[in-house]
Amino acid sequence: MKQDVDIVMKFLEGNQMDDYYYINIAYKEALKAYKKNEVPVGCCIVKDGIILARAHNLRETKKLSLAHAEVEAIRKACKKANAKFLDGATIYITLEPCLMCLGAIIQARISKVVYSLNEPKFGSIVSIGNTLKDYKLNHTIEVHQGLMEDEVSELMKSFFQELRKK
Questions:
Q1: Across 18-38, average pLDDT
Q2: 2 has a pLDDT exceeding 80
Q3: CA–CA separation, 20 vs 18, rounded Å?
Q4: Given phi > 0 = left and psi -120 to 50 = alpha, else beta, which region is 62?
Q5: Per-residue pLDDT for 10 more than 60?
Q6: What is the C-alpha separation between 46 and 110, in angstroms, rounded?
Q7: Phi, psi at residue 99, to the nearest 5°?
Q8: Looking at the annotation, which residues are catalytic?
């Protein structure tokens, strides 16, 4: 048992431990969306170890196509930081961002994106294209993918299976 804990801690050393902690917060936001019959996507924005915002999809609740978790979180984070840019911030998302959300991330000058699961229909980092590499952007974003991928995948499958039953 101790050996398993040591292996996990070795894996999560440094930023990985922080990334896992914050992606788990995004996952909890996705669970909130799930309970509201929203597509279960959650998000958390962090800068200098401080959570600036957390949010989840609210498209159905607000009857607004723009109410993606990332857009909601960026709006809250800018308000809290009293700034239009979030240089040095990291955004943690349970699902690969769509083109709209990636555009908002770029416009907010977020420095790092950490997401759990690729989104084959709309994901704009690797799935339907690689916006960050395919275009000459004036802002570079570090990207990490795969933390809590299995949990998020199960949550998404469960949500869409239930939706098909209705």
A1: 97
A2: no
A3: 5
A4: alpha
A5: no
A6: 10
A7: -60, -40
A8: 70
